[in-house]
Amino acid sequence: VQQTSKLKEEILRLKKEKDVVILAHNYQVPEVQDVADFTGDSLGLSRQAAKVPQKTILFCGVNFMAETAAIISPQKKVILPDLEAGCSLSDSITVDELRDWKKQHPGAIAVGYVNTTAEIKAELDYCCTSSNAVNVVKAIPEDNEILFLPDMFLGSYVAKMTGRKNMHIWAGECHVHAGITPEDVTKKLDSMKDAEFVIHPECSCTTPMMYDVADGSFDDQKVSILSTEGMLNHVKESKAKNFVVATETGILYRMRQQNPGKTFIPASEKAECQYMKMITLEKVYDALVDEKNVVTVPKEIADKARLAINRMLTIS
Ligand code: 13P
Ligand code: SF4
């Protein structure tokens, strides 16, 4: 404990001295969230990356998030404490696969989740995150075919919510969210009968439930499908006292901190992203000292990818 608080103090001192801003995703370990200037979802962190005055961003998240920050702010230095922090979802489509898919559907609009590599983003018309995917698709004229990638659960959720029939959906998934089973969910909801249920749209268990969500009911237990920041806002405003949460368990730290009178249980304790958890306080400290592990995106890729990201940022 003493070691951790000493490290935290050092990080806080160093980031001030070096004028570095620390951004952390909602899935980061508690002690990393504690030293961050901003904690949020992918969309919120992209906005912060563009807005902050500091010239150096220490990004506590995974590779595609740091790349997005580097694309939006090419004049800033973006550091990722562990360059191996990847994402199974962003690995689920290659740029060659995307080019082939586009060739099969000439004229279709390519909409890609922020959980993609910079190379993939450079091939997109629009980028989206879990909090604005529905609005991004709604902004595309009805008669345009859409290629939605790479998450099939987010894709089918968006298709259901927009009523869109001409959307082709890539069959990718996040192993953490896809791994939360309907059995896990049923068990937890049964153990807390009055709980509200909040689900991230990357969850495979979203599929049977979204029909009930669209109808406004699910077995008497209120269900909301939301991005991580959307969940945090929702549970704060809700009158309910108990919540079952279907997403990566890192989010529970902020939920519990911000709502001391409420109870939050994970839909599955196993829902941990090993990539997010690769960022430790020690690595944050080392990254601040050395300013190594800089994430860069080649200019020609960044310039193209920025168009898709900026289109998203102006819609939502
Ligand atoms: P959010 O955009 O909801 O924060 O999700 C990012 C992510 O990686 C989900 O697994
Ligand atoms: Fe990627 Fe899933 Fe981890 Fe999010 S939780 S970073 S989608 S592997």
From TrEMBL:
What's this chain's function?
Catalyzes the condensation of iminoaspartate with dihydroxyacetone phosphate to form quinolinate.
Q: Which GO terms describe its molecular function?
A: 4 iron, 4 sulfur cluster binding; metal ion binding; quinolinate synthetase A activity
Organism expressing this protein natively:
Nitrosopumilus piranensis
User: Which SUPFAM superfamilies does this UniProt record tie to the protein?
Assistant: NadA-like (SSF142754)
The protein's annotated pathway: Cofactor biosynthesis; NAD(+) biosynthesis; quinolinate from iminoaspartate: step 1/1
Q: Which Pfam families match?
A: NadA (PF02445)
EC category: transferase
Quote the subcellular location field of this record.
Cytoplasm
Annotated InterPro entries: NadA, NadA_sf, Quinolinate_synth_type2
Cofactors that this protein relies on = [4Fe-4S] cluster
Indicate the transmembrane segments per the record: none
Q: What is its main location?
A: cytoplasm
Question: Binding residues for [4Fe-4S] cluster, per the UniProt record?
Answer: 87, 174, 273
Give GO BP annotations, semicolon-separated: 'de novo' NAD+ biosynthetic process from L-aspartate
| This protein's name | Quinolinate synthase
GO cellular component labels: cytoplasm
Q: Provide the reaction this enzyme catalyses.
A: iminosuccinate + dihydroxyacetone phosphate = quinolinate + phosphate + 2 H2O + H(+)
Q: Which UniProt keywords apply?
A: 4Fe-4S, Cytoplasm, Iron, Iron-sulfur, Metal-binding, Pyridine nucleotide biosynthesis, Transferase
The family database entries (HAMAP family) matched by this protein are listed as: NadA_type2 (MF_00568)
Its EC number(s): 2.5.1.72
State the similarity comment. Answer: Belongs to the quinolinate synthase family. Type 2 subfamily.
Q: Give the note describing cofactor binding and stoichiometry.
A: Binds 1 [4Fe-4S] cluster per subunit.
Positions that bind iminosuccinate: 25, 42, 113-115, 130, 200-202, 228
